Write the structure tokens for this entry.
Amino acid sequence: MLTPLALINFKPHLNAHCTRPHLDAPQQVAEFIRTGCELAKWYERQSCTLLQELYLRRVFFELLNHIADPLVHTCIRQQCLEQIYKPLLALKRYYKARRKGLNKFYLLEREARIISHEFNPYS
């Protein structure tokens, strides 16, 4: 089995510091999400559903952690909040195909709603 390029490019943690946060934050967050979702797609093609779920959840929770972290720059927190729908939709697609999976998705969606309300970087 060949190592996918996404696995080489994937960084397990989103970099919370950048030199130009207003300019770099959107690209930085989008790239983190893209590589995580590409890796999940690769594992889906390999019929490795546990690893697919792992990487989708990992990206999702990393974004939630950055939204809730007051030490992260506001621009990055805002971008995490604005782009959290991407891994959430991928998780919805994943859980729809699983038996009793929508209950897990609803719990994730509820957690995202609570955290985004409590730690809203726009307020």
Summary: The mean pLDDT is 87. The chain has one domain: 23-117. Residues 23-117 form one domain. Helices lie at 5-9, 21-45, 49-68, 74-83, 85-96, 101-118.
